[in-house]
Amino acid sequence: MKSVASIKGHPIHPMLIAFPVAFLVSAFGCNLIGALFGMPAWWTTGAWLALAGIIAALVAAVPGIVDYIYTVPPNSSAKTRATWHMVVNFGAVGLFIVAWILRGSASAEPGGAVILLEAGGLVLLSSGGWMGGTLVYRNMIGVNHRYADTGKWSEAHFENNEDVLTVARTDELKANQMKLLHVGDKRIVLARTENGFAAFDDHCSHRGGSLAGGVLMCGKVHCLWHGSQFDVNTGKPCAGPAERDIGTYHVEISGNEIRLTL
Ligand code: FES
Questions:
Q1: Are 25 and 112 part of one and the same domain?
Q2: Model pTM above 0.85
Q3: What letters, b where the CB count within 10 A reaches 16 and e where it falls short, cover 3-41?
Q4: 100 and 188: one domain?
Q5: In angstroms, what is the span from residue 222 Cα to ligand 1's centroid?
Q6: Is residue 143 part of a domain?
Q7: Residue of 8, 137, 138, 227 with fewest CB within 10 Å of its CB?
Q8: What is the per-residue pLDDT across 221-261, written as a single tens digit (0 to 9) for each?
Q9: What range does the domain containing 229 cover?
Q10: Is 222 in the pocket of ligand 1 (CB under 6 A)?
Q11: Is any ligand 1 atom within 6 A of the Cβ of residue 207?
């Protein structure tokens, strides 16, 4: 699952999405101008731009689906938003595909139905884009951030068939750095504070933000979605809007290994 970590660190999907947006918006503009003023060169260009936009959208969807499965925190407001983002964007591409099929060939003049379908596609695309922007800028999906001391995002996967797991070496993390542990279907954060190690659920009790994607400071983890803060040892909220504790786990050091008790 190394590739998942690299996807968390590099916003591939938000970068690729610029291409289908540019192609599909231009396609609609060219088709509209061509149809309004009877200019075949414009509507033929519009047809090929629409096809390029459809292909680019399907390519951009691949890292988007990977992000949806692996990066967006489960049971969170971002997961719901990401589901709608995906449905709306597929709907937009679907409308452009129907418009292309209805048209029959690139040189055929686009009728009113084609123009209307593409206009509907753009409305959906704008709505999907708004949600995508929220996912990136508020929910920080795909944002390549750093912990203290330029610590990089790191994660590891474990089977959930033992009560005590060795999850890291003691020299792996510096103070105020974190590591995301996938234990079976649980997401647990291993954190190093100035006073030692702590482990807690990667699930903000407000709306499910990833705490591994937050900031660790002075024994508290800050959720970047809406600003809640939690004591990493007790799990108690120190600042809202979260009101409920987060789950914590016992960790101990054995030699140069860190052991987590589930
Ligand atoms: S999800 Fe809202 S503060 Fe964490």
A1: yes
A2: no
A3: ebbebbbebbbbebbebbbebbbbbbbbbbebbeeeeee
A4: no
A5: 9
A6: no
A7: 137
A8: 999 999 999 999 999 999 989 999 999 999 999 989 999 99
A9: 148-261
A10: no
A11: yes
